[in-house]
C-alpha cells in the first residue's frame, strides 16, 4: 500500500485510540494509547523503513516512541529509509481535560535529512507563503510584522500565539500594532496548520524544539516558511531542580552541531528535503482542524496532509464493524480502546 495512505491512517487511528481518554484528566493515558496505535500500525508495514529522529525521548528513559527507534520493514535491506519526527499526541493536556489543542502528527523525509533536535525551547516564526521573502527573525518579530503589514497595506493581520507568561509583552505589542491576536493554550504545530489553511497569517512564540522539525516539514511541504532559533531552558525556567542538568545537555548538543542561541535556523536547516511529507489528525483539535467525533458505531476524523506544495484536508469515516472485519490490526486497537 502507498506509504502516504499508511501514514495518514496511522495518525487517524492514533486519534481514535486516544479518543477514549478525552476528559480523563490523565495525559499519560492519552499519549500511551496513541503510541501503541503508532507501533501497531507501523511495526510490520512492508516496503519502507522509518527511523525516529525526533520522538519522545531516548531509549533508556522513555517507554514510548523513542529516538532512533526503527519501524516498518526493518529486515529488508533494499527498501527506502526515512527519517521521522513524531508527536503521537501534540497537546496531551488539552485532550486530557477536553479543550481544543490536541492532534496526532508525523513528518517524514529521506534518510539523513532531518536534524535531531535537543530537548530545548525554540523561538519560532511560521508565516503563510505570501510572506516567505520577508521573514528575517534576526530583525525581531515586530520588524517582521511591520514588513508584512506594509506589504498588505493594512494592520489587521491575524496571528496565533501561545498564551504563556513569557509572551505577555509581545502579545501586548502585537495588539498595539493592530494585529488580531488569537491565543492558544497548547499546540503550535496545530497553529501552523491553521496558517497553511488560511485561518491565520503567522504563528509566533517560544515552544518545544523537537516540534520545530514537524513545523519545518509542514512549511516545506506546503510552500510556507519558518525561521527559528534555540532558547536555553534557564531563560524559561530559572529555578527548577533540573535546570542545571538540562543546561549541560544543551551545551553539549550545541557544541556538537556548532549551533548556539544566536543562530537563525531556516526550515531547510531542520529538514533538508524538498519532498518531505507532513500528516496530522484532529483529536480535540481546534481552528481549521476539527475534533474527532463518534456516533452510532462510526468515528468521524478530520485529517490533514501536505507534500510537494499540495495541501489536503480529509474527512474520514471509520465504521467500526466494517473495519474490524477487514483490518485485524485496527480491530485490536478498536477493541482495546473502545469507549
From TrEMBL:
Q: Which reaction does it catalyse?
A: beta-D-fructose 1,6-bisphosphate + H2O = beta-D-fructose 6-phosphate + phosphate
Which GO BP terms apply? fructose 1,6-bisphosphate metabolic process; gluconeogenesis; glycerol metabolic process
Associated pathway: Carbohydrate biosynthesis
Record bears the keyword Hydrolase = yes
Q: What GO molecular functions are on record for this protein?
A: fructose 1,6-bisphosphate 1-phosphatase activity; metal ion binding
- Is Hydrolase included in the keywords of this UniProt record? yes
**For this protein, what is the EC number?**
3.1.3.11
Query: Which domain of life does the UniProt lineage start with?
Result: Bacteria
The identity of this protein, by name, is fructose-bisphosphatase
Species assigned in the record: Spiroplasma corruscae
Amino acid at each position: 500500500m502507498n506509504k502516504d495512505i499508511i501514514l495518514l491512517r496511522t495518525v487517524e487511528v492514533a486519534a481514535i485510540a486516544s479518543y477514549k481518554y478525552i476528559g480523563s484528566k490523565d495525559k499519560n493515558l492519552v499519549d500511551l494509547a496513541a503510541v501503541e496505535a503508532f507501533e501497531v500500525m507501523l511495526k510490520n508495514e512492508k516496503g519502507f523503513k522509518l527511523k525516529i529522529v525526533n520522538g519522545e525521548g531516548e531509549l533508556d528513559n522513555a517507554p514510548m516512541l523513542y529516538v532512533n527507534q526503527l519501524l516498518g520493514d526493518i529486515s529488508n535491506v533494499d527498501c527506502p529509509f526515512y527519517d521521522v519526527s513524531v508527536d503521537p499526541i501534540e497537546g496531551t493536556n488539552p485532550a486530557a481535560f477536553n479543550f481544543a489543542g490536541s492532534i496526532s502528527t508525523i513528518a517524514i523525509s529521506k534518510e539523513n535529512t532531518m536534524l535531531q533536535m535537543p530537548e530545548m525551547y525554540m523561538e519560532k516564526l511560521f508565516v503563510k507563503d505570501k510572506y516567505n521573502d520577508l521573514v528575517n527573525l534576526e530583525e525581531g518579530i515586530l520588524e517582521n510584522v511591520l514588513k508584512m503589514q506594509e506589504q498588505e497595506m493594512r494592520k489587521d493581520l491575524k496571528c496565533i500565539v501561545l498564551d504563556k507568561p513569557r509572551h505577555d509583552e509581545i502579545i501586548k505589542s502585537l495588539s498595539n500594532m493592530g494585529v488580531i491576536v488569537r491565543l492558544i493554550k497548547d499546540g503550535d504545530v496545530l497553529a501552523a496548520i491553521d496558517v497553511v489553511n488560511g485561518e491565520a497569517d503567522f504563528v509566533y512564540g517560544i515552544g518545544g524544539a523537537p516540534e520545530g522539525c514537524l513545523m519545518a516539514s509542514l512549511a516545506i511541504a506546503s510552500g510556507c516558511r519558518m525561521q527559528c532559533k534555540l532558547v536555553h531552558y534557564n531563560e524559561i525556567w530559572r529555578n527548577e531542580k533540573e535546570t542545571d542538568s538540562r543546561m549541560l545537555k544543551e551545551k553539549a548538543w550545541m557544541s556538537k552541531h556548532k549551533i548556539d542561541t544566536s543562530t537563525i535556523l531556516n526550515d531547510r536547516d531542520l529538514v533538508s528535503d524538498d519532498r518531505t511529507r507532513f500528516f496530522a489528525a484532529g483529536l480535540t483539535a481546534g481552528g481549521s482542524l476539527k475534533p474527532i467525533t463518534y456516533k452510532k458505531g462510526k468515528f468521524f476524523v478530520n485529517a490533514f496532509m501536505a507534500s510537494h506544495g499540495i495541501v489536503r484536508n480529509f474527512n474520514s469515516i471509520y465504521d467500526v464493524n466494517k473495519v474490524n472485519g477487514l483490518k485485524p490490526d485496527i480491530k485490536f486497537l478498536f477493541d482495546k480502546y473502545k469507549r
